[in-house]
Amino acid sequence: MNRLLHTIIFIAILHICSCGSKSDVLTPAPDTKKSPVLNSMLLNGAAFGTTMLNTTTRPTIRLSFSQPINPSSLAAVILTDNNGSPVAINSIASKGDSVITVTTQSKLANLSKYTFTISTTLQSASGKGLQNAISSSFVTQLDSSRKFPVLSDNALLDTVQQRTLRYFWDFAHPVSGLIREGSKHDPDLVTSGGSGFGVMALLAGASRGFISRSDVLVRLQKMIGFLKNTAQTFHGAYPHWLNGSTGSVIPFSANDNGADIVETAYLIEGLVCARQYFNGAASAETNLRADINTIIDRVEWNWFRQNGQNVLYWHWSPDKGWQMNVAIQGWNECLISYVLAAASKNYSIPKTAYDDGWARGGAIKNGKTFYNIVLPLGEDYGGPLFFEHYSFLGINPNGLSDAYANYQQQTKNHTLINYSYCKTNPKNYFGYSDSVWGLTASDIKGGYTASSPNNDLGFIAPTAAIASLPYTPDESMGALKFFYYVLGNQLFKNFGFTDAFSLDVLKNNAAWFSDSYLAIDQGPIIVMIENYRSGLLWKLFMSDPEVRAGLTKLGFTGF
């Protein structure tokens, strides 16, 4: 009995002494859960890492993992569009659930940026999540299919001119017949300079038979009657903007509420062409010419020398005076102002105003080389292309020279520099090419700017390349065909080409196309196409005796 008791006590002591020893702690079972590791990610068979370009609109993404994936966690695989909205996809597992193939349920939009994401909620079959989220993006390709039937070059130019003419014929102000500033502006807001471009556009339309000569005459009688008798003027000059119903000035800015001599020059440029075009002996045409003469002859060009200085000033206001104080000095779009001021019968300016003011005593010259092309005049790289359009809707640069430049070389070389800049694309904007080029003033996304190589925000204006047809026919026709055939479903609308576009999906996330039109961009398209085809507006303007006298006075030769 004592022996049994001793044994029990001994066992109890051993048990007490063994408590808390390592040998008594239970070892936990090993963790068999493993995080999935992405071995490869392929987009249409190519490694998918940084942003990929020119992706098909029905892409396939193949994911290969280190171990099987839990199919119930595939909601972690997400595709979103440029607005961040989810895109419907199918995610199919294969090869023992270690390979996931992702496809879209429907075709994606062309020229759009998409982001592909795998979140950390993706789990392996063993139940452990992805350690780090994965994200990459791709840009879908341009739809390069032809949107319209292929036409001969002449038929294509007819189509573009005729459609663009609608802006000046159908969209003109119903009371005055003057040209509205833009399709997004107040419908009563008309532009004096754009109306001058519109007159030239109507003459091109009549010459082509798009509108009858008699109908254009009636329209011009309305426009010119309003300009002569109703529209507000200041020392004979018109404001930039007018009310198309009342003729009263609409301020362009707080201090720009009076005369704009540059916009007036564009208007007179068109009226000179009309005076030369309607040269018949019938009373309707003789009366039209008489009214045009009244308008032209009363512009006090020399008033805008601001007290006799050897330079023209852009603005004058009846209550602000010369507060804008913008001297018109070259090189820019304003050459026409000096030519017409020198040509004036009653208020002419001296040649010294041209030499000292416009040409800045010769400082107008450039002479540097850009892209192996010499630029005779102006700022480096030439500035926006409207510099070579607005004055040269009427002035024929071919063979024209003065003390400062050969203007055939100036207009061509400036355009080629603009073309070469876009083709070279130093800012790497997606979409720029030898078919997508042309920087000038236009609407852009969220505003308006004068685009140029020195102010390039990634927006192309069709007017820039198309209105350069007389200077760079091959390069401009290539751009026109791309704009029409490839982008035409989004770019060629009721009044012709809309104002601007961007294909730069990398910076904008999606292609952008303006839905607006501006008179000063539509006008050069139809007019310069006509100058390319027949030289019509050049012939009209350059045949005017007063214009020729003005050019001679300023020292021009070769016209």
Automatic annotation (TrEMBL):
Pfam families: Big_5, Glycoamylase
SbsA Ig-like domain location: 54-140
Species lineage: Bacteria, Pseudomonadati, Bacteroidota, Chitinophagia, Chitinophagales
Source organism, top-level taxon: Bacteria
Annotated ranges, domain Glycoamylase-like: 327-544
Keyword Signal found: yes
Protein name stated in the entry: Beta-glucosidase
Protein keywords: Signal
Keyword Aminoacyl-tRNA synthetase: no
